[in-house]
């Protein structure tokens, strides 16, 4: 087995709990995830994902889309553009 080093980090307890639960569902632990992350940094010579701050409108749209996925019964759906247009024209 390869020699290993320790890394000590400080993280909010709730975030750590949520990360552990998610990783557990994936069959991983925090050390596995960090190792994969570090290997990707080395392979790509960069942070291996986009770091982006969304504006308030985008955050609200993302929340709405997530809610639509969770509760599709609360939203209208259409099988064709004609159905959509008919509904739009009837909303006078």
- Sheet bearing the most strands, described? none
Beta strand %: under 5%
- Give the ordered list of helices and strands: HHHH
- The averaged pLDDT comes out at 93
Whole-number tally of structural domains: 2
N-C termini distance = 71 Å
Task: Output the number of helix runs.
Answer: 4
Keywords summarizing the entry:
92 residues, mainly alpha, 4 helices, 58% helix
Question: How would you describe what is shown here?
Answer:
This protein has 92 residues and is mainly α. The protein has two domains: 9-49; 52-92, no CATH class. Helices cover 58% and strands 0% of the residues. It is built from four helices and no strands. The chain has helices spanning 13-25, 30-44, 56-70, 81-90. The longest helix has 15 residues, at 30-44. The protein is elongated and about 70 Å long. The model has no long low-confidence stretch (mean pLDDT 93).
What order do the helices and strands come in, and which of them pair?
Blueprint lengths: L12 H13 L4 H15 L11 H15 L10 H10 L2
Describe what is shown at a glance.
With 92 residues, the protein is an all-alpha fold.
């Amino acid at each position: 087995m390869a020699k290993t080093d320790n890394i000590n980090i400080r993280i909010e307890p709730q975030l750590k709990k949520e990360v552990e639960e998610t990783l557990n569902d994936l069959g991983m632990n925090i050390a596995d995830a960090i190792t994969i992350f570090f290997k990707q940094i080395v392979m790509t010579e960069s942070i291996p994902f986009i770091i982006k701050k969304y504006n308030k409108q985008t955050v609200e749209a993302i929340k709405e889309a997530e809610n639509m996925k969770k509760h599709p019964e609360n939203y209208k759906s259409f099988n064709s553009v004609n159905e959509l247009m008919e509904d739009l024209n009837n909303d006078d």
